[in-house]
Specification:
By secondary structure, this protein is of the alpha/beta class. It is built from 5 helices and 3 strands, in the order H-H-E-H-E-H-E-H.
Amino acid sequence: MEKLFVRSAVPFVQVCSGEEALETLRGLEQKYGPQLKVMLITDGNMPSMDGDELILKVREQIGDRLKVAKLLTGDPDGFRVRVQYIDCRVVSKATDIDLLFDRIRSFLSAGASHR
């Protein structure tokens, strides 16, 4: 996944928790300002903050600059109800991974960089 972003000269950040993601996002906001556009790919189950909660917090923090939100899970049916109101696509780790890569390519080709 990271290689797709690097080839497109779009910053790629990988973090280990929702709190780290929010902290990193604050730094990116300071660096890129209102031109920052974000594609968030998160695991459904994380320590101390699940992916749907992270998506909500990111939307609160940056609003419509969150262009795409994807939640990866081994239990897509369990998350579909939880995310139906937060404009997020649930991606099954087992079966939808190719669709995820297609969406990443689409996001990158649409000029998603911070420039």
